[in-house]
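Researcher: Please generate the 3D structure of the following complex. Treat every line as part of one assembly.
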Amino acid sequence: MSDRATELYQQILLETARSPYHFHQLEAVDHQLEAYNPYCGDQYQIFLRFQAGRIEAGSFLGYGCAVSKASTSALVQRLEGLSRAEALELLAKFRKAMQGESPDSEELFQALSAAKRFPGRESCASLSWDALEEWLTSIDSLPE
Amino acid sequence: MVNIQQHTEAMTNYAREQLQQVPGIRFIGTGHPTSGIVSFLLNGTHPHDLATVLNEKQIAVRAGHHCTQPLMHRLGIPGTVRASFGVYNTFSEIDRLVQGLQYAQSILT
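Model: Done. Output below.
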């Protein structure tokens, strides 16, 4: 069984949405990102803690569709341990995968990239990444 | 006009009866069936995910707030999926909607 819907709703995407990474409030938060789409109501708070110029830990809470939740989970998990420059590299990697320009990108990114084939759903995949980009481009570095 | 109203009511009542058979369905609004609209949620699925799968099966439903964010907030729900019927719709299309929901459940839950 394979159609456009199952290309998007792959097992890895659904499992990530059902059991998202660090889906709780982080203790001792240094920075909080707000990812909100007023058109559909999806809304996430992303909590970050820094140490020595890197994102030491991340978590998130909120509500949205399986696509936005899986994508936000992927973002939080992959951000941990990164500097600002490395986070920007991760962001570029995600954008490239969403455009279908990375045929060898990881499985979850490939599933998320299928969102662009559905009207209005690409923003579900990019919601939290847009918030990340807005923040990263507004700062020069992460606190030491 | 009477014929249109009768058709709309019959479609809505049939939809409610048939959709009731889908495990986990929750109707939002079950008033008099003159509007020809059936709004619902399906346990374990988000309205937008559900609508995407149904749309792929050529079943045209809307999902979201339907411009009623305060009401959705009051009901404590993220939105609904909404099927609406007109004079051009048939009973067999409602059967297809039920099949579509079963298919969506098999993928999403």
